[in-house]
């Protein structure tokens, strides 16, 4: 008798597969580790990308130039630059649109809606222009107060106080 260990053909093939150095490992390739600075660098928007369409009504109006102001980045503080004087801007529908933008969660929409709403209500005669819009403003502000995001709630509350 011989002391040769006999393997079934299936076991022999499996053994060759696992012991062969030429076979690629079935494990996924090692993913590059993220750097701490990645959290500080917001991703830029690719205008030619598949997801270049704005996700909300306010974002769409802002992208089309329907809001007559733009964000000016400062070294310390941001500010709005109006295309025309805020006193000359018609409140209807701009004030309601800015109020809808208070529910936004992405920059620059959050800043533009909050500052634009505040600056419009600070112009002379704003009360007379805003009162007829209250039936449209109340449900929009109520929606921002009912939002699950604390920052959205805070912007809604600030707008309500104004």
Automatic annotation (TrEMBL):
<dbReference type="InterPro" id="IPR019399">
    <property type="entry name" value="Parkin_co-regulated_protein"/>
</dbReference>
<feature type="region of interest" description="Disordered">
    <location>
        <begin position="1"/>
        <end position="48"/>
    </location>
</feature>
<dbReference type="Pfam" id="PF10274">
    <property type="entry name" value="ParcG"/>
</dbReference>
<protein>
    <submittedName>
        <fullName>PACRL protein</fullName>
    </submittedName>
</protein>
